[in-house]
Design a protein that fits this description.
The chain is α+β, with helices and mostly antiparallel strands. It is built from seven helices and 21 strands. The protein has two domains: about 160 residues, Immunoglobulin-like (Sandwich); about 240 residues, no CATH class. The strands form five sheets. A seven-stranded mixed sheet has the order 4-3-2-5-9-6-10, with helices on both faces. Helix 4 packs parallel to helix 7. The protein is elongated, with a radius of gyration of 30 Å. Keywords: Signal.
Length: about 450
């Protein structure tokens, strides 16, 4: 009988100890990563190459070895061997054969003397054709000096057909290349006004390749063109607009730059006797001490893995969304009563993201354990216009007869930034997730 009572007492004591043991909770911080998609199969990509065949392009082929001619060869070799390539001439809906496309390396393609290649206007907007499938890539070769000097209608067409909430996952890249040129440079506002421009006595004249399509195809072919055309593209200027995937991977926290052990300490787990909070490697566990100021400021610098030539984020358009949970007796519950964190001082430079987190330590309950999940969204890109100052013709600083710069380039870049930002405002991409477990002493 004594043995039975002893056994019963032992079982009761064990159950009591188990019931008094703190609850163990694992905190994970793993959003889906945009960087783990497989590389596209370029052989399945349908590429449509559109060449501006207007008279303003004639001067680029006066030299059969010009950078422009070599670039057309590069496009032919790159796309013909790795994709289903179709060839077009501005203003002509019917496809060109590959041999007809290769005539773009010669004056006959531009001077209007051959009925196969009649005179056409420089209507870039008319060449922005609808995307038929997800693996379509549109390639445009142009001097960007449009009839009427209007590039706004070009960006409107790009927006309506590629960069909007109904066509998510697309991108635009613009590549500027300088070439030998000997011919007429026309005033886009009045084609009857022109001046002769000869590279032998003046600077190289720019032209542009514009890539529009899925972000995977645009990024992959941009990289391929740079690799295959090293001598052509090494002095080029490139801007890549990726409104839906501005970074290759989601960013997580690292340790603060100024770690003060008298104010806080980074631990592997937190325990207040009621709950033991553990986290994976992306979670930062902070124990805040009594000596900490009422508002504890933590400064960070984390890697931001941007694709090459990606237009930078606008730091003023970075927006964090904070979810707060506090342990209440048996479980964590969402707490929306107080704002306990403030993120500020965002800076983006050289693939680095800098910011500060101001924690309102005085508002935290003593011995309470909190979970914070902070999703950081990008709602806008910076304007890359300053990177193109040497390419853009400025009416206030440049003389009228300057063939080394492009009229309307600045407006076109501003337009690409605007349509990208409109999409990002409506559908902001996630760039970072910051996870904290916090306990106040």
């Amino acid at each position: 009988m004594n043995k039975l009572r002893w056994l019963s007492l032992t079982v009761s004591l064990s159950l009591f100890l188990i019931s008094c043991s703190p609850k163990k909770v694992l905190f994970t911080c793993n959003p889906p990563s945009p960087g783990n998609e497989s590389s596209p199969n370029l052989s399945n990509t349908n590429v449509a190459i559109h060449i501006d065949g207007s008279g303003s392009m004639l001067g680029y082929v006066s030299n059969p070895n010009s950078s422009y001619v070599e670039t057309l060869k590069l496009l032919d070799n790159t796309f013909s061997l790795t994709s289903n390539a179709g060839y077009y001439r501005f203003g002509i809906k019917n496809k060109l054969s590959r041999s007809q496309f290769q005539q773009a390396q010669k004056p006959v393609f531009y001077n209007g003397t051959d009925p196969k290649f009649p005179g056409v206007s420089s209507d870039l907007a008319g060449e922005i054709r609808s995307q038929k499938d997800a693996e379509q890539l549109l390639v445009l070769v142009t001097d960007l000096e449009q009839d009427g000097e209007d590039t706004t209608n070009v960006t409107k067409e790009i927006q309506s057909k590629y960069i909007n909430v109904n066509t998510l996952g697309n991108a635009v890249a613009i590549i500027g290349i300088r070439s030998e040129f000997n011919g007429k440079v026309y005033n886009p506002s009045n084609p009857n006004i022109f001046f002769n421009y000869d590279r032998s006595t003046q600077k190289l004249r720019p032209f542009y390749i514009i890539l529009i399509g899925s972000q995977k195809s645009v990024s992959s072919y941009l990289e391929k063109l740079q690799k295959n055309g090293n001598n052509l593209t090494k002095n080029s200027q490139i801007s890549l607009f990726l409104p839906q995937q501005v970074s290759n991977n989601i960013v997580y926290l690292n340790e603060p730059k100024d770690n003060n052990p008298q104010e806080f300490r980074i631990l592997k787990s937190l325990n207040n006797g009621k709950v033991v909070l553990q986290g994976n490697s992306e979670v930062q566990m902070l124990k805040i001490f009594k000596k900490a100021p009422s508002e504890l400021r933590l400064n960070y610098q984390v890697d931001l893995p941007l694709a090459n030539h990606t237009v930078k984020l606008d730091p003023e358009q970075i927006e964090p969304k904070i979810n707060t949970e506090v342990f209440d007796r048996k479980e964590f519950r969402e707490d929306t009563t107080k704002s306990l964190m403030t993120f500020k001082d965002w800076k983006v430079s050289s693939n680095k993201l800098e910011f500060s987190n101001q924690i309102k330590a005085q508002e935290l309950a003593n011995s309470g354990i909190y979970k914070f999940t902070v999703d950081v969204f990008a709602k806008g890109l910076d304007n890359p216009e300053s990177q193109w100052n040497d390419w853009n013709w400025n009416s206030e600083t440049d003389r009228k007869e300057n063939g080394a710069k492009t009229r309307g380039l600045s407006t076109f870049l501003q337009g690409l930034s605007t349509i990208s930002n409109e999409l990002m405002t409506k559908n902001p991409p996630l760039i970072a997730r910051f996870c904290y477990g916090i306990q106040k002493e």
